[in-house]
Amino acid sequence: MGAIRRFVDSNVFIYLMLKDPDYSSTALNILLRFEEGVEIGYTSTFVLSQVLAHLIRRGRIEAVEKLYDYLEGALIVVVETLRDDFDNARKLKRGLGLPWELWDDLVIASQMIRYNIREIYSNDSDFDLIKDIKRIFK
Predict the structure, then answer these.
(1) How distant, in Å, are the alpha carbons of 7, 37, 72, 97 from that of 47?
(2) Taking the model in full, what pTM does it have?
(3) Which pLDDT tens digit goes with each residue over 57-109?
(4) Among residues 2, 5, 60, 71, which one has the fewest Cβ atoms lying within 10 Å of its Cβ?
């Protein structure tokens, strides 16, 4: 049996990069799991764009460099964001009757579905509204 594949949402990176007092240790433990080889982490260019934009808005340029350094040696697969991800997010939105406010999460869910990944490390409870996606944050 192969390693478990899980997606990583932007808040995991943000909590760690900003040293969030409540969640940074959980975020670190999540990312360390990929180094053990039991799990394979996935994220996307869409997620990384969210993270980088958030860090820049907060004026945390040093954290941007640290994130790049981390990604160069990390055992996380970064998948490209495709137009199909947006089209499928729109279909998911309609099919589940979800509001546009969940757009980013629907795009990520579409990427997960494309790679047949059903679990995401995230502290965003909006993922609980998306059928067939299981959110984990511990």
Answers:
(1) 10, 22, 16, 23
(2) 0.93
(3) 999 988 888 888 888 877 899 999 999 999 999 999 999 999 999 999 999 99
(4) 2
